[in-house]
């Protein structure tokens, strides 16, 4: 009942807010454009090892965050903007890197290596690409305007409410690059003469911004051009910062530890056809696959800090569906890999894929898209991470100081999800092998 009262209270407040067609700040608006107010990308440990095992372009880390995860917002349903219904085609998200800062979005370091849209960071030889998930648009120094499709319509149909959850998730990807930032940007708010080679991301500068914009609305200002030299909207407080740094409480941490990488994986895994009756009677369809890994001689295989672990990560959309089905545990581990069109016409529902290391036959969790924070992250099997050489067979032996190859064999099972009703159809799923220093 209390939840209903809160919702009704919000509606009564909102219906009296806007008599004009201009978008105005809503009842739950708070500032998140300042350095200390930004959303942490929570990238965790970033390991840069030898070029032999991590050549230029090697992925170093990735994460997907939503603005609902910023603790400054009370709820995903918090209303940040209120607009007239006539403005439904005149509302936008604007995205850009923090272009005026040397370490936060000015230098497109990846371009010289063949990886455009990766921008230099405070970490040496580490570049960041940000992607607006709802549209697939990649952040650049140039402001880009993306129509907002998600919003809530008021009960009387006269207004639209822009909530925290209506803004797109943002994906962050880090790769290794050859270049470094130089002293040529408009500013250096991190106050450093060179990039960090190890340690915590100590700069509090955002790496990118998302803002709400509605042309003609003074508060919802629409920036355009190069973010290195134009940032008028920042002064209207309607920007939302995205940050790798220490001010958000969960800064990235750069280390240099001998490690392993994935060399190859069985590209396609096919299951034999199985009937609904067989699935309901506890039978499974089985197949197998393997992963080849390369390991530096001094690398350590394990699930604890400083050791290298491996896991299979589900796609983001599959993760969201798994959350709806209560298949995600408190550490972000996912018990079933779901079809990417789970339950849609022509696709099966009530079934998922489980995996086990063929060496021990124990079922494993998949890695989800859990926002790992320093205070709460629980590495290990609960989150889908397992010692990289668990059950591995060594293929090459080039000595303890050299790089050696291993193979890890897995069994995969197409099975009924407990408590779900099985429907017939195709199962088309994918997962990505991750190897990472914990």
UniProtKB/TrEMBL annotation:
Domain Fimbrial-type adhesion: 258-438
InterPro entries referenced in this protein's UniProt entry, alphabetically: Adhesion_dom_fimbrial, Adhesion_dom_fimbrial_sf, Adhesion_dom_sf, UCP029766
Keywords noted in UniProt: Signal
Domain of life: Bacteria
Pfam hit, one: Fimbrial
Annotated signal sequence range: 1-21
Name of the protein in its database record: Fimbrial-type adhesion domain-containing protein
């Amino acid at each position: 009942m209390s939840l209903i009262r809160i919702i009704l209270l919000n509606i009564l407040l909102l219906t009296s807010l806007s008599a004009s067609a201009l978008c105005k700040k809503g009842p739950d608006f708070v500032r998140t454009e300042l350095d200390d107010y930004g959303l942490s990308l929570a990238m965790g440990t970033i390991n840069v090892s030898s070029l032999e095992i991590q050549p230029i372009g090697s992925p170093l880390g990735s994460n997907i965050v939503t603005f609902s995860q910023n603790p400054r917002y009370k709820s995903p349903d918090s209303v940040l903007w209120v607009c007239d219904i006539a403005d439904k085609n005149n509302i936008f998200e604007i995205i850009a890197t923090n272009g005026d800062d040397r370490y936060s979005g000015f230098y497109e370091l990846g371009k010289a290596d063949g990886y455009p849209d990766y921008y230099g960071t405070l970490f040496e030889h580490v570049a960041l690409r940000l992607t607006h998930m709802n549209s697939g648009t990649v952040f650049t120094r140039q402001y880009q305007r993306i129509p907002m499709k998600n919003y809530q319509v008021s009960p009387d149909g006269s207004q639209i409410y822009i909530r925290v959850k209506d803004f797109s998730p943002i994906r962050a990807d880090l790769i290794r690059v050859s270049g470094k930032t130089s002293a040529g940007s408009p500013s250096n708010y991190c106050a450093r003469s060179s990039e960090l080679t190890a340690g915590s991301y100590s700069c509090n500068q955002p790496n990118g911004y998302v803002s709400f914009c509605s042309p003609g609305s003074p508060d919802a200002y629409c920036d355009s051009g190069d973010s290195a030299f134009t940032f008028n909207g920042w002064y209207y407080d309607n920007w939302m910062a995205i940050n790798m740094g220490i001010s958000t409480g969960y800064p990235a941490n750069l280390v240099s530890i001998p490690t392993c990488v994935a060399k190859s994986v069985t590209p396609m895994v096919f299951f034999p056809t199985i009937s609904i009756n067989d699935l309901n009677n506890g039978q499974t369809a089985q197949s197998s696959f393997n992963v080849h890994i390369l390991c530096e001689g001094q690398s350590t295989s394990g699930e604890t800090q400083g050791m290298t672990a491996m896991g299979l990560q589900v796609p983001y959309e599959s993760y969201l569906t798994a959350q709806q089905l209560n298949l995600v545990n408190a550490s972000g581990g996912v018990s079933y890999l779901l079809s990417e069109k789970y339950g849609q016409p022509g696709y099966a529902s009530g079934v998922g894929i489980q995996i086990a290391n063929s060496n021990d036959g124990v079922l494993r969790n998949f890695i989800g898209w859990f926002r790992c924070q320093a205070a709460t992250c629980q590495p290990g099997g609960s989150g889908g991470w397992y010692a990289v050489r668990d059950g591995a067979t060594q293929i090459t032996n080039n000595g303890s100081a050299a790089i050696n190859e291993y193979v890890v064999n897995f069994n995969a099972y197409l099975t009924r999800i407990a408590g779900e009703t099985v429907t017939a159809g195709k199962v088309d799923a994918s997962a990505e092998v991750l190897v990472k220093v914990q």
